[in-house]
Write a structure and sequence with these properties.
By secondary structure, the chain is an alpha+beta fold. 41% of the residues lie in helices and 24% in strands. Bound molecules: thymidine-5'-triphosphate and magnesium ion (MG). Thymidine-5'-triphosphate binds at residues 11-16, 36, 48-49, 61-62, 110, 165-166.
């Protein structure tokens, strides 16, 4: 039986301020405010983040520094932002993630998704054990506390990590997703911001449950096809997007305008050979192997289309780029009858360096 996915979302607690406490333990217990000074006047700029004692005083991310100073007690410590220090701490945390999951997608300086479907065998009790070990490992190796959300997809995991903070762990099993989401405010859905939620409130939609009861056609009518479909799926806790590591995301591509618009593969043969050669030069220069070849097609009405194919094994030849791209363009033309191509591109992704790896299976 195919088992479902298990995804972790990890978000470091009051990150910049916690990283400051880490190198200066005497700060612990005092209100700490990390400031992003703009330099115009001594106090102009915004609060980057505040630790929990400072949050108790009403100081929060994004607040003008002058305003935060009005709320501060005499013992409140204001520090300038020190990104190199936070990046170094962040790098250490990512190395711990990599001990726990083969697939790690860092989404910001203090957040990442981990796909632990294989490591847990799709089992949510194993996921609880693993999440506790991960929290323990991060605390032990870096000194930082994090909040973890566990769910069957990225959307649910991300909402769950914010559910209990700091040092939280929220697990949402697949059969609990609808219950977990239903009472939440629509703004808890990542991607639904102030503007969208204001419009939803006008439609009498406040909670995720309300959103789930709106017919998808109504959402599409009000927010457009892609956003309407996204909102509908999100309200049901559906999200198929993959956790992709940086190596998988990294790609090389070349895109150019054709000298003359092309209506069939034959009319772009010379062009395709040329851009494939250019891309091959870059592949050679980078010394990488690739697993995926993709094409980009932009038609005369400026519609963008991409198609890609994953190869059975890593390749690094001109032939692999050219023949795969040609096949992709051929099927694109037969699928989109009458299309007139103005610009075209070829890309490779899923990159790796087999010479530095133990086995090619490391690509999987
Ligand atoms: P967040 O994860 O949003 O916040 P946080 O880690 O400080 O607090 P929480 O415990 O609620 O997760 O952002 C991560 C870091 O990004 C934060 O420590 C500082 C920085 N940041 C800013 O500089 N400005 C901002 O407005 C926000 C929201 C964050
Ligand atoms: Mg955080």
């Amino acid at each position: 039986m195919a088992t479902g996915r298990v995804i972790f979302h990890v978000d470091c607690d009051y990150f910049f301020a916690q990283a400051e406490e880490l190198r200066n333990p005497s700060l612990k217990g005092k209100p700490v405010v990390v400031c992003v000074y703009s330099g115009r006047t001594p106090d102009s700029g915004a609060v980057g983040t505040a630790n929990y004692p400072a949050r108790k005083l009403g100081i929060h991310s994004g607040m003008p520094i002058a305003f935060a100073k009005k709320k501060a007690t005499p013992g409140t410590v204001f520090l300038p932002v020190d990104l190199p220090h936070y990046s170094a701490v962040s790098g250490k945390i990512v190395r711990v993630f990599q001990e726990f999951a083969a697939k790690v997608e860092k989404t910001s300086i203090d957040e990442a998704f981990l796909d632990v479907s294989q490591e847990t065998n799709g089992d949510f009790s194993a996921a609880r054990e693993l999440a506790l070990k991960l929290k323990h490992g991060i605390k032990g190796k870096t000194g930082i506390t994090v909040s973890v959300g566990v769910g069957p997809n990225k959307l649910v995991a991300k909402i769950a990590s914010g559910h209990q903070k700091p040092d939280g762990l929220t697990i949402v099993q697949p059969e609990k997703v609808r219950d977990f989401l239903s009472a939440l405010d629509v703004e808890k859905i990542p991607g639904i911001g102030g503007k969208t939620s204001a419009k939803l409130r006008e439609m009498n939609v406040n909670t995720v449950k309300d959103l789930a009861s709106v017919p998808v056609a109504v959402l599409v009518e009000n927010f457009g096809r892609a956003r309407g479909a996204f909102m509908h799926n999100a309200s049901l806790g559906i999200d198929e997007s993959e956790v992709t590591s940086e190596r998988e995301r990294k790609q090389l591509s070349i895109i150019r305008t054709l000298k003359q618009d092309a209506k069939n593969p034959a009319e772009m043969e010379g062009f395709l050979k040329e851009i494939s050669e250019k891309l091959f030069e870059r592949v050679k220069a980078e010394g990488v192997f690739f697993r995926t070849v993709s094409i980009i097609a932009i038609d005369s009405r400026l519609g963008h289309f991409t198609r890609s194919k994953t190869l059975e094994s890593p390749a690094n030849s001109f032939e692999a780029i050219h023949s795969t791209a040609r096949a992709l363009f051929e099927s694109f033309f037969s699928e989109k009858k009458g299309v007139v191509l103005r610009r075209g591109g070829v890309g490779v992704a899923n990159l790796g360096e087999p010479k530095n790896q133990k086995s090619l299976s490391d690509f999987a």
